[in-house]
Structure formats: structure tokens, C-alpha cells
Amino acid sequence: MASVLIRSTALAILMGLSLSVAAFDASSNRPVNLNDKGLVLDGYDPVSYFSGRPVQGNKDYSVSFEGGTYYFASKENMAKFKANASQFAPKFGGFCAMGVAKSKKLDSDPMAWRIVDGYLFVLQNKEVQKSWLVDVSSNLKVATGEWATIKNIAPKGL
């Protein structure tokens, strides 16, 4: 059973890699996942995830943080982010948490996410999210170790 799960996870990640390379600049070594407009989370409000329902942000409420631009749904959410950006910004620069655990910087789907220990983690898609949720603790431990190594390496170099 475990080998089937591992193969399924690896296949999902590899399939996603081939699809997601066009979604972001695979030659960029920046530590944050941006769309073609320079937005993190495709413009979703990172603070809104903590209420359990992500919502699209508004360009009138925007903040630059660690090389990316974040949009917010309200002035209040923008203020919360400014007060504690490292708490609200997605971990691993908004790259897929499972991909990071596999030493890859993969694009993520803002609708495949989870709050763990008060931090936002995004994943490549709902299928990868299911695999990641099987053992969140171990996946996060591995990903945290890998992130230090791959953070400033371009996705195509991994």
C-alpha cells in the first residue's frame, strides 16, 4: 500500500511539474512563487485563508514582501499582514509544500492549501494535497530541511 502511495505521489508531482513549468519562470532563482503579474497566490488574500475561506484580493490593497506582491480583500487584512507578514505569507515562498519535500520548486494552486501550526501551506493541486495530508508532520519536517537547500535555486536546476 505504501509503495502505491509513493508511486502515486511521485507521478502526481511529475505530471504537475510538466504542466506547471509554464505557469512560472523556471529559470528564476527567487525564493517566492510569482505568477506572470508578479503576484503571490495568484492575487488571493493570504490573510483570508486564516478565516477558512480564501478570497481574491484587490490591487488597491497591496503589499510587497520578500520579492512578491500580495493583494488583500480589505484594508484590515492588509494591516494584519503588515503587522506580521511572516505569519501570513505562505511558507516555502508559496511553492508546493510537497514539491519542496521532494527537492522541487513546483507551482501551487491557491485553492489547494492547509493551515498547519498557524502557518499557510499551499500545494500543487488537490491530488497532491491528498497525498501530503497522509503524513503532514513528516512531510513538513522533510520540506523544512529541503527548503534551506533549494530556496535560492531555479526550479529548472532542481
From TrEMBL:
The keyword ATP-binding does not apply. Pfam families: YHS. It comes from the Bacteria. InterPro entries: YHS_dom. Residues 1-23 form the signal peptide. The keyword Metal-binding does not apply. Residues 52-90 form the YHS domain. Keywords: Signal. This is YHS domain-containing protein.
